[in-house]
Structures are given as structure tokens and as C-alpha cells.
Write a structure and sequence with these properties.
- The complex is a heterohexamer, with 3 copies of chain A (93 residues) and 3 copies of chain B (327 residues).
- Chain A is an alpha+beta fold.
- In chain A, a hairpin with a 2-residue loop joins strand 2 and strand 3.
- Chain A is built from 3 helices and 6 strands; from the N terminus they run E-H-E-E-E-H-H-E-E.
- Chain B has one domain: Na+/H+ antiporter like fold, CATH 1.20.1530.
- Chain B has 15 helices and no strands.
- Chain B is globular.
- The chains are: A alpha+beta (93), B mainly alpha (327).
- Chains in contact: A-B, A-D, A-F, B-C, B-E, C-D, C-E, D-F, E-F.
- The interface between B and E is medium-sized, with 30 and 34 residues.
- Bound molecules: adenosine monophosphate (3 copies) and sodium ion (NA) (3 copies).
- The site of one sodium ion has 9 residues of chain C, from helix 5.
């Protein structure tokens, strides 16, 4: 099994959920409101403005599905800020 | 002119404005007063309920004004005019960058609830009356500019990027059922139907401490603005300057139109404020979603760190002075 | 009957109820008014302190009533009766599913603090008096139903799952030292001992704005209920219907018992409300822990999305009308 | 060393902490209030109702201990919602 | 003596103190009243704005007192004296452990805003006046002790660990631009310049409900203290005992110095309270950063779980009685 | 690529950010306010006191950089509470 971890702009969350649910992942977990630094500089999350807020999305699934997810999400990262990391896991339950 | 200075001074004597300045300074010197995000959100909800409810209650007393239809019309005219002016200006300033032009236009064509509320409290303080239905205009003016700006971009756009198309439906839905619109109209309606009995029940919470809540909120707004002003360099001098001129020009347009159709002093001032104010909640989220290639640092910094403070401190007394000259 | 309608209408004229409806609608049309979780929690704490403190203060003035012991007894009778009725009904409705029967019975036998508070504000609004010690009954009635329901399940259970046994101790501890019980009793006691001097100190915060805070809280309750009602399909028509009948039947039992022992109009109404209301804070957590095989969608949706709105909007005036007929 | 990541219902957190502390793990970390989707559908966390809220528990320890933890926690997932993922890590400090 | 008891009793009759006790008990019996962190933070900000603003407003009425300079001087003397006394005591008690000595001294030499505010509300309740500028002293006394304690450690330290040196700049910056200092002084200034007009605008929010907000805050403080007291064992009896003696000794020093320069009853009491109180916000963070080898369980438990409750419940009436004996 | 996960006392966050930014990591993510248990016992985070609060810092970068980061951060863990875990990931975007 593979674990895909995605850091994503909060404005894009709904969009991304729709995409991965359509693909049919068996599940995902969202860690809300993370901060950080990347190519676009430091994230500046301001209490009133949603733009600049990030979430961490964790998807564990078989390699096939995860590859599918990666292909479908890649285009988003052209316009939006964020990163994706892939690693190996064993799903127990 | 003398009076203008006086009004400006009277505004600087307002605790709410001074706490805004305090927040701004605290942020610049990196002092760590952290108002938690959840608090900022609930204060904002509180202010909207309060302003909506009070407006509705007052309408139930004063009755619907004849000016209502005219005002509604003026609201749309202001939305279209200011959005277009800003779009064209930025389009030329940034060398045909229609994406950022659209993004910024969406913000300036839309409105800022807190700027409006601060203006209302300014008028209350100096005892100037305004038509209560204006709160409805605030709600009405939030979305059109965003839609107009997106249409303008669509018109200039040849490449037709994918993202834009997929999200346009969501944008429209948001524009209509946006939380703040529902909250403002809902509270307006409830204030209208529940009358004095209802008012007496909830005014100790939603009306009496209103000014203090606004003060606390502006402390945080000052800190947000101070944090964002650090990105001024990335915005550049050109955009920095127009971020001061836009509110002045738009404010004048608002005041002229409102006084042209004969609205009273307070209402005219508030139309000036609505025209001059720029959105920093609804517009950024919508624009980031619909126009991802536009640069968020531009529109957020301009709207939040330059135009908002300008309006709060100098703009409101300016639009008021202008309005009183035209009465 | 005419009067019943009038009471119902008077309730709909209450801002708190209308904001509940607004929240419900906002949630259905997916408008994004998000009251942060931390705010909901502190509002709930505020309401409990307020109601407890005021109750204690009033007892310190009016003195302990002779009805206290009778009321205490009635509280337990209501807990046992309503829990059992709901258990048996669901047991038959869901074909001997004693787990879900127990889970749901725990909720309906227990009480809802906010329903109670809304009823109190209803009575205050129409100027009907009630015995102050009733707040104590609210605290007392929170836990017994949960314990009774678990005992009923234990009695029907042959398989003896592990989880249940390990957690039973924690459940009991929770039932006694639950935060809301400690807060209600604690505030009651403090209100009782600090007298007018204490009351004058803290009433500008804990009493005067009370109605407004309740209104804000009900806005969120409306949104929660609206969100949950989407799961109605998974609950099914049968359970959906009994979620309306349970409060009516239990409310009638409460009213009958209270008026039988000769309590006054307000107190009788409140006993009806306590009997009719169903828990959505203490019971869900306890039941999820003790009866993990029961379906949380059933009990949460029934209690929160159906019974709570029913009680708030129609139930309270109904139990009041019934009580006044029996006086 | 192994890293065990557990998504768990918040009502079960205390219970689970007791179990893993009894086993004697050298440490664990809790990321509070995550959201997600899984076999039981989307998590609906409601501000007032604790049921439907999830936490993410991270345990890093040697394989022996982690296996022990997995065996002891497995039964819980029959009744409660949640998942466990296992992966390899190196513990530095 | 009789009067001392009376004062103590009057303090126990204060809802704020009783809610503190309730929180403490709730925490001990592990009852789960959870006041969200964001709420605690905003309540703390509210209290600082409120006390600062009111102080500033009152100064604008009463004018600057002649005692101001003397008081400023006394503040520094108290900071130096109490920090040194605590340092030396712990140094000997813990067998030359200069790190923990410095860490603990930083806490006791600094001040606790909430202890001060509780004392102010104690004086208000019994109708004793104090000089308004004392709020400024509260702000001034927050940082010096932290710097003095670090210097003392530096003096005793031979090994010259790296961490200490790298962070010292940040510590100094923090000491000057700390959020609470900026907030207190800022509010003081705004209260001073906006006068009665400003006061009337925001006092329904920042002044009227003040006592109730303090009460809610102390409920949480009680829970925090109750949670921390569980670590008493790790602190040990020796440190536990001095955590009661330090406030008494420091409080006496504060009262003596203040009455020596002829300050009035209320102001003398408050100087006693400032001297007696120990920091649990600014100092822990600074000390953890600057003296990482010191044991946080020592200084947090002593300051928060022992000295704070002692001051709140017994200390304040004690310093008051002492001050009135010396008048 | 390597993923470094660090549990760190919140008072040390600024310090640590300065260090890793100076090293020149390509990015990092902070998951705020995690709780846990470790060598120093259970974390007791109290609403008013910052001491005792932890954050989770995630850094994904090439092995070289990560090794550099590890070496520079190690000394901190002598005085402060916290742990570091290292694992393999593939960075996709
Ligand atoms: N190398 C990295 N390691 C961990 N998180 C990262 C990394 N790069 C980016 N991120 C996260 O992704 C967000 C957006 O990244 P970027 O689009 O590169 O600006 C940052 O704010 C970080 O939270
Ligand atoms: N494949 C998965 N990947 C990541 N998180 C998952 C996955 N499956 C389940 N989860 C998380 O575990 C929670 C409960 O899962 P479940 O018991 O399968 O409904 C979900 O709400 C998710 O937060
Ligand atoms: N083995 C572990 N697995 C996961 N998290 C850990 C582990 N050890 C320590 N931690 C985290 O690091 C924090 C500080 O650890 P320590 O310095 O060992 O007390 C703990 O509160 C946990 O959040
Ligand atoms: Na505008
Ligand atoms: Na009931
Ligand atoms: Na002190």
C-alpha cells in the first residue's frame, strides 16, 4: 500500500475531495490548518482571509489508486501552491 | 476643509480607530498579542447579526422608504462602475495583465462589511441619521462585482484554462448563498418581524456592547493589516498608490450618485463608503478559486493592508465631508 | 386550542427561535456561516453557569420550597418511565435490536440543557413563574437514564461483549462527575451563597445578555440540526416518526406527573420539557463508548435533528398549553 | 523502528492511551481533531457532539512493541471506526 | 485580626473566588469542563484592555499624581529585592542550583496580571480607592525580574552554555515588546486620550461585564491550577512550602515600601499584591527559552498551582489588612 | 528524498525555523499543537502557559540537506524535550 501526503491550499480542498472521491479512494484523512514554507515562501494565514491557509491530506490506498490520484491532482499544482509526498505503508485495519 | 480636519480628528478620537492603530503598531514591532482565529470569526458573525438585526428593527419602525428602489438601482450602478474602472486601470498599469486586473477589480467592486460598520458607528457617534435599509444594500453589493470581474476576465481570456470552467458554478453558488449575505439578510428579516419585544430581549447582547466589540475587532484588523503591510514591497509602488486612489475615486462616485438621487446625508456617506471599500473575505476566496494565476499578494495586500486602513482612518470622514458639502 | 396556536405563534416571534430556523436554512442551502467549535463550547458553558447561578440566587431569596422532595422523586420517576417506554418501543420497532433500543432510550430518558433553557426563556418572556430549584432537577436528570438504558441492554444481552464491561466503570464515573452536572450544581451553590452582592457583581455578564447569547447559540444549533437532517434517509421513516412522538408522549407524562403532585404552571411546563427533551451531549458520548455496536446515526439524528427542533419550536408551547389546561 | 499511525474515534482515545501505556511504548503523539472519509462514510464532527470526531495517534517504537500494540488494538476496530497504518522509520533522538 | 478574618470571608463571598474554587475541585475530580484555549486567550486580552483602558480614563480625570515618580522607583526596588531574595533562598535550598534558582526568581520577581486584577476587583467591592496609574506599574514590573534573574544566573554560570547566549537577544526583545505590555500601555494611553466620549462608547463591553468575565476566567484558572497541583509531588515539600512563604514575604516588602513613601491604602495594597504575585505567562516562556536546563515543573507548579491560589484566596485580604494597619 | 518528522516544544519553534531556513531546506510544514507522551512524561499543555505545548514539524528534502538539518538540530534535544524520526519518501511535486 502507498501513503500519499498532500499539502494543499484550503480554498482547493472541496475541489480535491470531489476529485479523489470520484476516483474512489477507500478513505482519506485531513489535518486541518497547517502552516509552513515552500517555493511560494512562508504561508501567511490571516484569521479572516481563507487564502493562505493550508491543510494536510493523507490518503492510504493501493498503488493503482494512488497513481491515479497523483495523475489527476498534478495539474492543480500548476496554479495552486502545495506539495505531494509518496511513501510505503502497510495498512493493518 | 476646516470641518474635514475636524471630522478626521473626531475619528482619531474614537477608541475603535485607536485600537486599530495599536494593533497595527503591535504587529509591526512584532509584539505577540494573538487574538485567536475562532474569536475573530465569531466577532465578525456578531457584527453582521448586530448590524442586520438593528437595521431590520429600525425598518419595522420607520417603514420602507421610497428611496429603496432608487437605492437598489444605485447599488448596482456603483458595483458595475467601480469594478470596471479598477479593471481598466490595472489592465493598463500591469500591461494587459487581465488576470490580475480581474482579481483586483473583484475586490474593489465588492464591499467590506467592517468598513461599513465602522462608518455606521462614526455616524452614530456624531449623531447623523441614515436610512436603515442601507444594510440591505451592503448585502446586495457583496457579490455582483465578483461576477462582473470574472466575466471581464472571461471576455479577455483566449486560452480558456480548465480550472476556471470547473469552478464557475461553485462561484455563482457562493455569490448567492455566501454566509455573510445569508446572515445579513436573515438578521434583517428577523429584526423586522420580531419588533420591540424581540429587540428588548436581545439588545443587551447584540446592541449595547456593539461599539466595544467593534473596537476589539479593529484591534485584530490592525494586527492583520500590519502583518500584511510587510508584503508591500512585493506589491510595488504603483499598485500601492492606486490602492489609495481607488477608494477616493470610488468613494466620490458613490457619494455623487447617492446625492444625485437625493438621499440624505448619512445614507449618501454610507454609499460613498460602500463604493470606496474593498472586500477581503468573500472576494479573496472566490478569486483564488476562479483565477488561480492571479497573484494573491497583490489583491490581499492592497485591499487589507492599504485600502482598509485608509478608509477606516481617513476615508470615512472624507466621504462624510464630501456628502455634507453636496447636501 | 386557540391559545395553543397563540403560544406557538408567540414562540415563533422569539428572535432565538427565528435564528434557530435561520441556521437550519443556512445549513440546508450550504451557506458557510461557521461558528467555531470553541465558541459553541464556551456559549454552552456560559448558559449553564447563567441558568445555575440565577437558580441558586433565586432559591436564596425564595427559600427552599416544600415541593423539593416531591420534585426530586418525580424526576426519577420520569427518568425511569420515559427510558423504559422508549426502550420497549424501539425494541419492537427494530425487531429485538436491544442495542439500538438501549442507545436511543438513553438519549430520550436523559435531558437537553438547551431545550430546558429555551423553555425557561419562553416562560420568562410570557411572564410565567416557576420554582427555581428546577435547575437542580435538570442536573439530576442527566445521568440516570443512561445508566438505566445500559442496565436494560445488559439484561437483554447474552453475548457479553468485552468492550462493554471494561468501560462500565468509566461510564458511571462520567455519570456522576460529568462537566455539566458539576457546572450546574456548582453555579447553583455559588448563586445560593453569594446573595445580592455577588449577583450585582456578575449579572451584567451572566444575566443581562443571556437572551442574546441563547439566540447566538440557537443559530448554531440550527446549523447543526440542518447538517444532521441530511442523514434522515439513513434513519428511515419509522425512526423519524417516533422521534416526534417520543417528545410528545414523554412530555405529556412529565406534565401529568408534575401537575398531579400539584406543582405550579411554570414548573409543570418545565417538567414536561425535561421529560420531552433528549440528550445530545452526555448521552451520545456515553453510549458510543458503552454500546459501540449501536448505530450513532440513529440516536444522534433522532435526538439532534428531529426531537430538538420539534421541542424548541412546537413542543415547548405545547407542554405549556397542556400544563395550563391542567392547572 | 516502526511508525504506527492510527486514526481513532475521540471517545476511544482515553481507552487506547491506557492500553498502549500499559504495554509500555516509549512515546506517542496525538494530532487532535482530524476529519476524513472511510468505510463508515465521511466524518461529521459537530461542535457539541463528541461522537464523529477523530484523532491521529502516532507511535514510534521497535517492531516488537509495535506488534504488541497492533495485536492489542485490533479488537477495538471491530466496533469502532478507524484505521491503522504501519511504516518504517529511523528514530534519531 | 478580627478584621483580617472578615476580609478573608468577604473574599470567599466573591463569586469570582468561588468559581476559582469550583474549577479547582472540578479539575481534581476530573470533571470535564473544558474552556477552549482560544477563549482563555481572549478573556485574558479582554481583562488587560479593560484594566488598562479604565486606568487611562481615570488618570485623564484625576490627573497625574505626584506619587507617580516615587511609585515608579518603588516598582523597580520591589523587582530587584524580591527577585534577589527568591534567588538566594532557592540557591541555598537546592544546594547551589543556580539555574533553578534563577528560573524561579524570574517568576516571583515578575507579576501576575490576573492576581492584580482580582485585587482591583476586591478593592472595588469593598469600596477602597487606589491611584489609577498603578496599572502602569503592573506593566512596568513584568520584565525587569526576568532580566535580573538571567543576569544572576550568568554571574553564577561558569560553563557558559551555548543556548543561553543565542537566545538572550530574543529575551530582551520579548521583555520590551511583550504582548501584554503593549496591550496594557496601549489601552492606558487610549483610555487617557479618548475621554468620557470614548468611555461611554466602549464601557458597556469593556467595563460593565468586567466582573463576570473575571469570574469566568478564574473558573478556568482554578481548573489549570487543579491540573498542575497533581505535579506537587515532583516539586517536593520544600519548594511547596516556600511557594507559600515567598508571596507573604514579598507582599510584606511591597506593602512596607509603598506605605513608607506614603501611598494611600488601595495603592499600598496593590503594591503588596504586585510584589507577592508571580508570573505564569511571560516568565515561563522566557525562562524555558533562556534556561532550558531548569525544571519547568518546579517553576510552573509553584507559581500557578500554589502561589496563585494562595494570593487569590488568602493573600489579597492579607496584604489589604496589613496595609490598613500601616495607614 | 527523506522525510524528517520532528516533535518540538513550541517555545523552540522560532529558533528551529531560523536554523532550518538558514540551512536552506526547500520547505517544511508545521502541524500545530500536538499532545503526547515521551521520556519527559505526558505533555501537559495549559491554555495560558506556552511551556508544555508541542508542534510537529515535517521537512521533506534530499538526504544531504536532511542530514545537515539533523546534525544542526541534535544539540537542541539535549536541553529541550522532543524527538526526530526519519523515513523515505518520494516527492512528487
Ligand atoms: N519540502 C517540503 N517539506 C514539507 N512541506 C513542504 C515542503 N515544500 C512545501 N511544503 C508545504 O507546502 C506548502 C506550499 O508549498 P509551496 O507550494 O512550495 O509554496 C508550504 O507552505 C509547506 O507547508
Ligand atoms: N484509506 C484511508 N486513508 C487515510 N485515512 C483513512 C483511510 N480510511 C479511513 N481513514 C480515516 O479513518 C477514519 C475512519 O475510517 P473508517 O472506519 O474506515 O470509516 C476516516 O474518517 C478517515 O479519517
Ligand atoms: N516514541 C514516540 N513516538 C511518537 N511520539 C513521541 C515518541 N516519543 C516522544 N514523542 C513525542 O515527543 C514529545 C516529547 O518527547 P520526550 O522529549 O521524549 O518527552 C512527546 O510528548 C510526544 O509527543
Ligand atoms: Na467597493
Ligand atoms: Na427526556
Ligand atoms: Na512579584
Amino acid at each position: 500500500m502507498k501513503k500519499l501526503e498532500i499539502i494543499i491550499e484550503s480554498v482547493e480542498l472541496n475541489n480535491m475531495r470531489t476529485i479523489i472521491e470520484k476516483i474512489g479512494v477507500s478513505g482519506y484523512t485531513i489535518v486541518k490548518d497547517v502552516a509552513g514554507m515552500g517555493k511560494h515562501g512562508k504561508s501567511v494565514s490571516t484569521s479572516l482571509v481563507d487564502v493562505g491557509e493550508y491543510h494536510l491530506l493523507i490518503i492510504v490506498d493501493n498503488e493503482n489508486i494512488i497513481n491515479h490520484v497523483v495523475e489527476n491532482l498534478k495539474p492543480l499544482f500548476k496554479n495552486y501552491s502545495g506539495v505531494m509526498f509518496l511513501s510505503d505503508v502497510v495498512k493493518i485495519t | 476643509m476646516n470641518e474635514l480636519l475636524l471630522n478626521g480628528f473626531s475619528n482619531l478620537n474614537n477608541p475603535a480607530i485607536l485600537f486599530f492603530v495599536l494593533g497595527f503598531i503591535a504587529s509591526i514591532i512584532r509584539s505577540d498579542i494573538k487574538i485567536p482565529e475562532s474569536i475573530v470569526k465569531i466577532l465578525s458573525i456578531y457584527l453582521m447579526i448586530s448590524i442586520g438585526y438593528k437595521g431590520g428593527f429600525e425598518i419595522s419602525h420607520s417603514g420602507m422608504s421610497d428611496d429603496l428602489l432608487k437605492s437598489f438601482f444605485i447599488s448596482l450602478v456603483i458595483s458595475v462602475t467601480t469594478t470596471t474602472i479598477v479593471f481598466i486601470t490595472i489592465y493598463h498599469l500591469l500591461k494587459k495583465d487581465f488576470l490580475n486586473a480581474g482579481a483586483i477589480a473583484a475586490h474593489y467592486g465588492s464591499v467590506s462589511v467592517v468598513t461599513f460598520i465602522t462608518a455606521v458607528s462614526f455616524l452614530d457617534k456624531i449623531g447623523v441619521e441614515y436610512n436603515s435599509y442601507i444594510v440591505g444594500m451592503l448585502a446586495i453589493m457583496e457579490s455582483p462585482a465578483i461576477l462582473i470581474a470574472l466575466l471581464l476576465v472571461k471576455f479577455f481570456n483566449k486560452s480558456n484554462s480548465n480550472t476556471e470552467v470547473t469552478n464557475i458554478k461553485e462561484i455563482f453558488k457562493e455569490a448567492l448563498f455566501n454566509g455573510s449575505i445569508v446572515l445579513l439578510f436573515g438578521s434583517l428579516l428577523i429584526g423586522f418581524v420580531t419588533g420591540s419585544k424581540g429587540y428588548n430581549l436581545i439588545s443587551p447582547f447584540f446592541v449595547t456592547p456593539f461599539q466595544g466589540v467593534l473596537t476589539l475587532f479593529l484591534l485584530e484588523m490592525g494586527m492583520i493589516a500590519g502583518k500584511r503591510i510587510e508584503e508591500f514591497k512585493k506589491v510595488g509602488l504603483k499598485l500601492g498608490i492606486v490602492a489609495v486612489f481607488f477608494p477616493i475615486i470610488n468613494g466620490i462616485i458613490g457619494v455623487l450618485l447617492a446625492s444625485f438621487i437625493g438621499l440624505n446625508l448619512g445614507t449618501t456617506t454610507l454609499f460613498g463608503v460602500l463604493a470606496a471599500s474593498s472586500s477581503y473575505i468573500a472576494a479573496p476566496a472566490a478569486v483564488r478559486l476562479a483565477l488561480p494565476q492571479a497573484n494573491p499578494i497583490y489583491y490581499i495586500t492592497m485591499s487589507l493592508a492599504i485600502t482598509f486602513p485608509f478608509n477606516i482612518i481617513l476615508g470615512i470622514p472624507l466621504y462624510y465631508s464630501l456628502s455634507s458639502m453636496l447636501q
